[in-house]
Write a structure and sequence with these properties.
It is a single chain. 11% of the residues lie in helices and 47% in strands. With 323 residues, the protein is mainly beta. The chain has a four-stranded antiparallel β-sheet with strand order 1-20-19-18, with no helix packed on it. Strand 3 and strand 4 form a beta hairpin. The termini are far apart.
């Protein structure tokens, strides 16, 4: 059959159709677990509890907060704040209601982006980015009291092996048999942050390698800036990774959050809605815990940059949804 469109109009129509599809769009629908995550975490207005601009009892911001729960039900948060010396200080705080937090220990100047995991033997492993000479530092604590007092039993500062400029934003993914498994970022060619995987064995041996597969999954969405902080989550027996991606370098309003499926190597952008309509979200983490009402819940923690925040919503956002 002869086309009813002239060649020039046909080309124009094709251009419109192609440009209507976002760079990371997929023909197939999101995976079931990604759809489940978005149904639980996509709308803060439907949460069972939430807090914007999260702060501890000393009034310090709880930026990049990552939450876990102790065996006795106490909530633990590790986070960083900028103090009077103008430097980041990582800290640990405790809470019984997820809204009010008591600052328990400051891990010192030049520590940021902390992550915490139980070691399976009653103790905890903490990792953070440390400056100057930005690198990943790992600390081991014999028990909860030692963590809250800052009395580390083991300490290791990793030499940079993938970048001569910076490696950091660690996330502890597993601790077993004397081995700590982590993810993080390295500054590729001292310019843009890209992903790494690492293992620390017996607090003596460090090995790190790039995670190009994860980078490619976010680059498919037009992520031309940094690919940074991330957090592993198991939901319904399936592993996901929440990860931040920046569309344009130096543009903090362009941070977005994605769900990455390690099984398929595919990422999906999460559509997140807040009460005021904030549009930029960074430093995602999520965990399953028991909420203050005693119900199983999914808790999500996000940093809302001022450049993409609705009035009153800038800073650390914490919210949870009962399962």
């Amino acid at each position: 059959m002869r086309s009813l469109l002239r060649p020039g109009r046909l080309v124009a129509l094709l251009v419109v159709l192609l440009t209507a599809v976002s760079p990371g769009a997929h023909a197939e629908p999101p995976s079931a677990v990604t759809a489940r995550l978005e149904s639980l975490a996509g709308d803060v207005r439907e949460a069972d509890g939430y807090a914007y601009d999260l702060r501890d009892d000393s009034g310090h911001t709880m930026d990049t907060a990552e939450i876990t729960q102790a065996p006795d039900g106490t909530y633990l948060a590790v986070y960083h704040s900028t103090l009077a010396d103008g430097r980041f200080h990582s800290a640990v705080a405790t809470s019984t209601d997820l809204r009010t937090w008591t600052r328990r220990h400051d891990f010192g100047a030049g520590t940021s982006q902390p992550t915490l995991a139980p070691d399976g033997a009653g103790g905890y492993v903490l990792a953070y980015e440390k400056d100057p000479d930005n690198h990943i530092a790992v600390r081991g604590y014999a028990d909860l009291d030692a963590l809250l007092a800052g009395n580390a039993e083991h300490a290791y500062d990793a030499s940079r092996t993938l970048s001569r400029c910076a490696e950091g934003t660690p996330d502890i993914t597993a601790v077993h048999d004397g081995t700590v498994e982590l993810t993080g970022h390295y500054q590729e060619q001292c310019g843009t942050d890209r992903q790494l995987r690492a293992t620390l064995t017996d607090f003596t041996t460090w090995q790190a390698e790039p995670d190009k597969r994860l980078d490619r999954a976010l680059e498919a969405w037009g992520t031309g800036g940094n690919i940074g902080d991330r957090s592993a989550l198991e939901l319904g027996g399936t592993e996901l990774v929440l990860i931040e991606g920046q569309r344009r370098r130096e543009d903090f309003g362009s941070w977005r959050t994605y769900a990455y499926d390690p099984a398929t190597g595919r990422a999906e952008r999460l559509t997140l809605r807040t009460h005021g309509g904030s549009r930029a979200f960074a430093n995602p983490s999520a965990t399953l815990l028991t909420d203050p009402q005693g119900h199983p819940a999914l808790l999500v923690s996000l940093f809302v940059p001022g450049e993409g925040a609705a009035p009153g919503e800038a800073g650390q956002l914490l919210y949870w949804r009962e399962l």
